[in-house]
Amino acid sequence: MTSLRRIPHLLALALLIGGVAGYFLGRHTSDVVLSSISGSLSPILEQGTSYAFIHPLLAARTPEATLVGDYVSLKDSLQSLVDAASADSATRAALYFRDLNSGLWVGINQNDTYYPASLLKVPTMIALYKEAEEEPGILNEAYAYDPSVLPGTPFDAPSTLVPGRVYSTKDLISHMIIDSDNGATFTLLDHINPDFLHEVYIALGIQDPGDNSADYQISARTYGLFFRILYNATYLSAASSEQALKLLSQATFTDGLVAGVPEGTLVAHKFGEHVLTSGSTPTGIELSDCGIVYYSSHPYLLCVMTAAKDEATAASTIASISKTTYAAVDARYATSK
To answer: Between vectors from CA 245 to CA 127 and to CA 12, what angle results, nearest 5°?
Structure first.
């Protein structure tokens, strides 16, 4: 690998805090909204490029579905769930739902920000695949796992990697995404070209965590962009986007979005967990789960971010929101299955 520089330690720290397929479609029309609102499209163009004749379109902003009389009952139901959770257990929640065929979306507190924690492993994967498109050999480069790469902060999760064993970059990416393994993540961060990671954020117009990553927060709506560019293959190649979503569909965390959909439903997703503290004493937890639910020919994006007294309460809130969303989509599209 060439031109490597060590990633800033604070970015790696933000990834650690907290801790604990085959038929994916290539490019879709997820950002093409119904013709009745097409005049309200606002493009998200790739930044930082120097092409002479093109300016790549990564995604498009569209109006909330309820503004055009759509998904009104879904928003009402989700708002009731969020209000009830807040009243019963002081749980704070935000969510962003997007129908990936129509581009219509629904949000509840969708611009509120939360600590992403392990959610940042997705842009890290995107950056590595982007670098591999320019230097394909990097995916086969191998590194011995050294536990000292972990900063050893409180509440971190142990790595499943074997000290001294050699792992390829491709295998480390799999461990990072499927198992959310921090040992794999920090090993990759020790070798990634940080320019590629920086460019992922810049291209989408998202603030780069950079040296301020310990305090970095992001909203459900903004974070959803990472999944939208994968689904539409508008930043990575179709092959790289397909591989990324395939790995995300194999994630072992099943207490959030997956718990709210029927068994066997394909969900490509990533969770993140951040422990809230007062000094060194845990006071609560932020748990987020974001991804794509592959409902027949009508897949949708759902990103839920929560803050609660404990993980079980937060996970239950996410699962309830996921279940309600799936039921609404099923009621809308069941006849077209």
So the answer is: 40
Look at residues 63, 103, 66, 22 and name the one whose alpha carbon lies nearest to residue 300. Answer: 103
Q: Which residue has the tokens 């498109």?
A: 133
Measured in residues, the chain has a length of 337
pTM for the complete prediction? 0.85
Q: Which domains are present in the chain?
A: 9-336 (3.40.710.10)
Nearest to 232 by CA among 98, 74, 63: 98
Q: What is the DSSP string of 122-189?
A: HHHHHHHHHHHHH-GGGGG-EEE--GGGS---TTPPPP-SPTT-EEEHHHHHHHHHHS--HHHHHHHH
Q: Identity (one letter) of the amino acid at 36?
A: S
Yes or no: say if 120 and 15 are a contact pair by the CB < 8 Å rule.
yes
Q: What is the pLDDT of residues 201-249, one digit of tens each?
A: 999 999 999 767 778 999 999 999 999 999 999 999 999 999 999 999 9
